[in-house]
């Protein structure tokens, strides 16, 4: 069974620093069964902002496939933009597929 962790930090709380650390540690995390799909984020900011913006339908599909193919473990997705989405809609915004 996989576990999804949504990191939803608000602006100016160190979220970007956490995202950079997760992205730089992508391989080491994977060795521990934790998936941070940094390649779906922007090179200048390794957060998964397209999740909250509702853009990048192909990225949604590819991300879902990556998660489905991954072995059991934990998947971390991070974007501070989800902090602006009403709580009852966060999961729909994060994983619309």
From TrEMBL:
<protein>
    <recommendedName>
        <fullName>AAA domain-containing protein</fullName>
    </recommendedName>
</protein>
<dbReference type="InterPro" id="IPR027417">
    <property type="entry name" value="P-loop_NTPase"/>
</dbReference>
